[in-house]
Every structure is written in C-alpha cells, then in structure tokens.
Amino acid sequence: MTKINVEKCAKILRDKDNILILMHAHPDGDTLGCGFGLCRALLKMGKKARAICADEIPAKYAYLYEGMDIPEFDEDYIVAVDVATENLLGDLADVYSGKIDLCIDHHPSNSEYATYLLLNADAAAAAETVFKVIKALRVKIDRHIADCLYTGLTTDTGCFRYASTTSNTYRAAAELIDLGANNGIINRVMFETKTKTYAALERMAIEGMEFYSRDRICVITITQDMYRKSGSSEQETEAIAPLSRQQEGVEIGLTIREKADGKCKCSLRTYESVDASKLAALFGGGGHKQAAACKFDCGVEEAKAMLLEKCEEFLK
Amino acid sequence: MTKINVEKCAKILRDKDNILILMHAHPDGDTLGCGFGLCRALLKMGKKARAICADEIPAKYAYLYEGMDIPEFDEDYIVAVDVATENLLGDLADVYSGKIDLCIDHHPSNSEYATYLLLNADAAAAAETVFKVIKALRVKIDRHIADCLYTGLTTDTGCFRYASTTSNTYRAAAELIDLGANNGIINRVMFETKTKTYAALERMAIEGMEFYSRDRICVITITQDMYRKSGSSEQETEAIAPLSRQQEGVEIGLTIREKADGKCKCSLRTYESVDASKLAALFGGGGHKQAAACKFDCGVEEAKAMLLEKCEEFLK
Q1: In Å, how far is A118's CA from the nearest CA of chain B?
Q2: DSSP E strands: which ranges in A38-158?
Q3: Of A82, A163, A162, which is closest to residue A128 (Cα–Cα)?
Q4: Rounded Cα distance, B239 and B231, in Å
Q5: What ipTM does the predicted assembly reach?
Q6: Contacts of A188 in chain B (CB under 8 A)
Q7: Candidate from B165, B178, B183 with C-beta closest to A165
C-alpha cells in the first residue's frame, strides 16, 4: 500500500483506461456521488468507466446515473470510493478482494487494502476529495458531475449539519452550486421528503424509542414486522439513525435493524463524549468518531443487551 | 424611504451613536443573530448600542448575547433587522412605529417603513447582509460575532437546506467558520436537540396530521391542550412548521397554533407550485415565497376552514 496525494491520484487515473469503480454495499449518497461523479468525469475524458455496487440503489438516487452512456469493456483498473474496508463491498468483496488498485476515502479506519490509497480523514465526505481529483484531472465539471459531488457532501454531513463539516466543505458546496448543482432539489429529496411508508415507519420508530442509563442512551429498534406494517423497507431507513441522537441528554444513539434472516445490524451515533468507531470495533464494525456501524450474528434482543453493556462502560 | 447599499449603510452607522437595534417579535435565529451580531460590532467600534425584541428570547439562543457589556444610554438612532413590517415588532410597535431610521432586511415583502432601507431580497438570511455591513464597517470579526451571523444563516435556511440557499450563503458560512463560528455546536443545538417536552409535542403533532386535497395539503394543529399535556410551549414550536411540508406529495403545509386567548396563527410552508407569501397576504400576513405566516382573530377550526378554501383555490 502506498499513500498518495491528489495530484498523484490524478496522474494515475490519466494513465489508465477501462476503469471499474466500486461503491460500498447498502450505498449512501457519498459513495454513490463519488462513484458516479468520478465515472462521469472519466467518461468525459474519453475513457471507458463504470461504477457498481453490490446492493440495489434506492430510487431517490436515480439522477446520479441517469443519462450516462456506459460502454462495454473488460476492466483493467479497479478503484474503490468511500469504502473503508473490503468487506463493506458486500457481495462484490468475493470477486474483488485483494484486487483493488486505488482507493479514495475519508474514513480514518481505512484498512489500507488497495495498492494506492488517497485518504483525507479530515474531509467530511469522500466527495470533497473526489472533487479535488476531478479538478486535478482538468475535466470541465458539468451540472451532472456537480450534482453527484454535492450529493456526497450533503448526505454525509446531514446537510452540512454535523460537527465534521468544515469551512472547506462549505466552500466546495459553493463551488459546486456555481457549477450547476441543484442544491434546493437535492436537499428536498434527501432530507425533506418522506414517503408515506417511511413516515409510517418513522412514527413507529419514535413511538418505540427506549432510553437507558438515565436517558444517556437511546435505542431504536426496527423489526421485520415494522417493515411489514408500514410497507417500508431497509432501503428507507437511512434517516432513522440520526433520530436516536436527537433527544436532549442522549450521548449514544443505537438503531438496531433486524434483517430478514433474523440477524441484525446496528448504527451508532454519538457525541464527543463517546467514540462510536471504538464502540463499533468491539463488535467487528467501524466508521467515524460520531457515526459507526456493526453487524451481529444474533437477534435484536441479544445484540441490544451486548451493546448496552458496552455502552454503559463507555459512559463511565 | 431611501434604498441604500451596503457601503452607504456602513457610512451611516459609522456616523451615528447610541444605537437601538430592534428585532422582530417571536424572535428567530436570523433576527437575533443579526441584532446581537450588529450590536457586538458597534460596541467593538466604541459606540453605545443595544438590541431588543418584544418577546422572551428562547434559552437556546443565550450564547448570542452572553458576555456582552451593554452600556446605559438614551437612543439616538433606531435600526430594525430582519423586520419586514412594523407590526412584526409586536409590543414594541406601539413605541417605535414611524420612528425607525434604518432597516436591514431580506424580505421581498418589506413595507419600506424605515427612513433608509438596505434590502437584499436574494439573500437567504438577513445575516448575509448584516455580515457585509459589518465587513464594510471594518470591524475585526471575533468568534462571538461569527457565531451570531452563522446562527442567522443556518436557522433561516433550515441548515443550508432550503432552495433559497445560494452559493453566497455557503461562502459566507465558510468565512464565518474560519472566523471562529462554532458550526458543529450551533447546528446541534438548533437542529439536533429535542427537549423531552418538545419531543412529546412533536409526537402529538405528527400523530394529529391531517391531509386534504388528495394529500396535497397537510395541516398540523397545535392546541393549548397539547402544550399542557407535553409540558412544551409556543417558544418550542419553531421546528414544527417544516414537518408539515415533508410528506411526499404535499405542496402546502399549514401549521395552526392556538394562542392562550383562543385566537390562532398559521405558518405556511410550500413548494414552487404555490407562493406562500401571496396566500398569507389574503389573511393580512406575509413572508417569503416558500415560507410565510398570518394571524387570525378566530379559533383554530374556523381559521382552518378559511385557509383550506383558499389553499384549494391556489392548487387549481
């Protein structure tokens, strides 16, 4: 593994063709915005490129890839964007583990699996760094690329809300808006639009909130039964985890989602007092200081008991 | 009334002393951020200044004025910030109507009541313009002033979310963060912290949502009884109105709040298809295209019926 800077990353990409871009499983706006933004830029340079991920892409992100002409090709170079560890590739990990040539990321927990790593752990979103790479490639950024990169910025920062957001993030957003990013519509779709099924699920999630450790821990549980009753699905649960941290006094918010096979996963949201990535690491997960995730091979109740025990230790 | 630009406004303020700054009643982050930000800047220039509003300032805004040394003085010059019409001064209107020397505002509906008006209707927040004035005054902006102005920007844009937010808004935010604005904490307090009483009120509000005109209109009603049951108060209702516009398909969101005297007022939130300020104007109110407000001399049910009738006409 060799750590590289933006210029070196651009130089490498200029020299390559037939580029496959990998985005992480259960994709969010940052990995998708980086993947499709970079792909659009490489296509504009006359290269062959394609961006893929293991799971279905939620419909609200369709504008990121709409109108793209994807050529047929056999991949010669493999790039991962916003992917901290290879297992986050989901089903694609089986095919591509050990074969990734370049990774562009912002997770401090990046496991350094790629041959070249461009890591900016100070960036609030990986899209901040992909934006720099595209500028270094001297591609003329059109409104589609601007939409992709803006989407990465806004989704990973909770719309410029979280403490991870720096003046650089705001400046990048300003530049992208000037380049044509449709910030009003993007934020409306990402943050201000609840489907009826999601609204029903959210209501159940809020009604079922549990508080522990003198209200310093909030637990939201999303069960398969709640998906059935609301008509919602796991794809729509992205906005639930932040709710777990919103009630005054809560220092750790846990959102435990039951999977179809009865096992579960947990999203962790914390404030400064607790390092979420360290907490998640105890269960084989990872992420950022204030937002992390981990998986369990057991059911919701068992996972909750294990999590609460460790949370209480962290709060001491 | 004379319309002036930023330079002229700064020139006027440089020549004046003993300045009273008026903020609007039922104060929000923009009027408070502008008022205290400008006041702090004038104090730094060695002038006497004070910022006041008719209603109690919610506790979460205390950092805007904390640590300020307010000298005693009789006012010689009166400035209104983020105040579209004199009646929005609330109880202060009785004292100061017809006496306001200078107004700095961003409402297109500004009624031009002041002797001098600095109006930038393209600004997402009045704080964008006050920031320019303070720079033109050549005051060294410290972190307290930066916090005030950033608070104005973020609260009036729903944390840089609404379509009114431009690249200039983002650029101003970046500058203010570099000047010391504590964006992480401010956004956490403004958008990510629900008191238990507010959380209870919000739950009732969501449970009581009503939909009309094939779900194109959403009505939230907040009654005095709901304040009693939740322990919440009108001061905490700022975040409720945006909820009325969040469900997919809703074009007009109405939030009707019952006052202690049984009369009521309504916050309107719309999308492009409907001009909220025109709708509110039918009932003597005003505001922006996508966010406005009006008052009623009747109870909630009567106001709702009148509003729904006009909303349906607007949707035709």
Answers
A1: 24
A2: 49-52, 77-81, 102-105, 116-119
A3: A82
A4: 16
A5: 0.89
A6: 161, 163, 271
A7: B183
Residue type, B293: A
The residue among A161, A177, A269 with the most chain B CBs within 10 A of its CB, best to mutate, is: A161
- pLDDT, position A207: 87
The single-letter DSSP state of residue A64 is G
> Average pLDDT in the B87-91 region?
95
Instruction: Please write the tens of the pLDDT for every residue from B6-17.
Output: 999 999 999 999
Neighbouring residues of A21: CB distance < 8 A, sequence distance ≥ 6? A35, A38, A39, A49, A50, A51, A52, A79, A80, A81
Q: Give the minimum alpha-carbon distance from A273 to chain B in angstroms, rounded to a whole number.
A: 14
State residue B12 phi and psi, 5-degree precision.
-60, -50
d(CA A204, nearest CA chain B) in Å: 11
Q: B79, B87, B26: which is closest to B241 by C-alpha?
A: B26
Side-chain half-sphere of A305: how many Cα atoms within 13 Å?
4
Cβ distance B79 to B19 under 8 Å? yes
Spell out where chain A has E strands.
2-3, 19-23, 49-52, 77-81, 102-105, 116-119, 210-212, 217-222, 252-258, 264-270, 286-287, 291-296
The count of other CB atoms within 10 Å of the CB of residue A27 is 23
Question: Is the Cβ–Cβ distance between A66 and A32 less than 8 Å?
Answer: no
Closest among A265, A276, A259 to A310, alpha carbons compared: A276
d(CA A42, CA B235): 52
Name the pairing type of β-strands A49-52 and A210-212: unpaired
Given a cut of 90, is residue A316 above it in pLDDT? no
Q: Alpha carbon A163 to chain centroid distance? A: 16
Please name the member of A163, A174, A194 whose beta carbon is closest to the beta carbon of B248.
Answer: A194
B235 touches chain A (CB under 8 A): no
Whether residue B305 lies within 8 A of chain A, CB to CB, comes out as no
Is A273 within 8 Å of chain B by CB? no
Q: Does A183 touch chain B (CB under 8 A)?
A: yes
Residue with the larger pLDDT of the pair A43 and B237: A43
Q: Do B161 and A207 touch (CB under 8 A)?
A: no
Residue type, B291: A
